[in-house]
Amino acid sequence: MSLATDSARAETVLAGRYRLVKLIGTGGMGSVYEARDEHTYRAVAVKMFATPERMSTADRVRQEREIRLLSMLSHPGLIPLYDAGTHEFEDGPHRYIVMELIKDATLLRRLAEGPLHNYEVADLGAQIADALAYVHSRGIVHRDVKPANILLNDEAASGFVRTVKLTDFGVAHFVDGSRLTNDGTIIGTAAYLSPEQVAGEPISYATDVYSLGLVLLESLTGDQEYSGTVIEAALARLRHDPEVPESLGREWHELLRLMTHRDPSRRPTAVAVARALRGGSTQVTGPVPLGPDRTVAQREHKMHRAARRHARRGTFVATRRWRRRNTVAAGVATIGVLLACVASYVIGALH
């Protein structure tokens, strides 16, 4: 399908409802149009897939899988699916999906201007980790978490300075589903693949956590950790782990090292990552930011400081024991004060 053909399809009306306005993007699986819903008068995005004859069997499976996935997912960090259907063009039938129109820039374009502030990275990382946690709870691995698939909106929402959405589930994978390719075939973007993807080993939710770790590292430093050709980028991670600069601070260093650990079982879950980026950890949560002021905030926040001190003993069992002991001590002290007051009153009355 040529660009001229795509552009010529403007003003076509799909399902008697969606009028294509202009072509806004093309890719290997099809084209994306800005369209107008003539029933609700809102702008929407229409992703038009290629005809079945132009796609391989694996491409057709991925197409239907993306439609199926988007129809069953609903989360603030994901682009909602409004409708789906098939339209007959001159060259044959084309499947399409109708989604929310997002005109915001991608993280890839934003990183071309340089690294982000660590608070910005914590914000966007927490939102993407939230979206991944939701996706993982549905038994799905995204498999292609990268800056080009992360959209940034400068409008604040839900307590965040800007809102972030994760896109493109074309290569997503059901954990309990069948493989779409033969063993050994790599699916994903080379610069953000996990070691198990490169090695052709089974993937899990930890695969997305690894990719997100590389995205956050690049957002902080402004440099892509594994660059070069596809083969060079893919094989580099098998030779060495990502280099996380000490200058990022202890909290960032520890979190990113865990997220990009070569052993998937050692990586935190997406839920734990979101919690850490909001200022907590896998043991302690609290209103403490992740950044240069974190130590000061912890020192000034007495409740958080006490929780951290006792949680370091291993579990919250010690914390609960400490609270019970303080409650008992406070009760004994109160009774002692009351008895002293009564004794003083009695002695005074006798005299």
Describe this structure as you would to a colleague:
The protein is of the alpha+beta class and 351 residues long. The protein has a six-stranded antiparallel sheet. A two-stranded antiparallel ribbon has the order 7-10. Helix 4 packs antiparallel against helix 6, helix 4 packs antiparallel against helix 9 and helix 6 runs antiparallel to helix 8.
Which labels suit this protein?
351 residues; alpha+beta; 6-stranded antiparallel beta sheet; two-stranded antiparallel ribbon; elongated
List the helices and strands and how they pair.
Blueprint: H1 3-8, E1 13-14, E2 18-27, E3 30-37, E4 42-49, H2 57-72, E5 81-89, E6 92-100, H3 107-111, H4 118-137, E7 140-141, E8 150-153, E9 163-166, E10 173-174, H5 195-198, H6 205-221, H7 230-239, H8 250-259, H9 270-277, H10 294-300, H11 302-311, H12 316-350
Antiparallel strand pairs: 1-2, 2-3, 3-4, 4-6, 5-6, 7-10, 8-9
Helix pairs in contact: 4-6, 4-9, 6-8
String of helices and strands? HEEEEHEEHHEEEEHHHHHHHH
* Biggest sheet, spatial arrangement of strands: 1-2-3-4-6-5
Reported for the largest beta sheet, the result is: 6 strands, antiparallel
Structural class estimated from helices and strands? alpha+beta
Helix content: 40-55%
What form results from the Cα inertia axes?
elongated
How far from one another are the termini? 108 Å
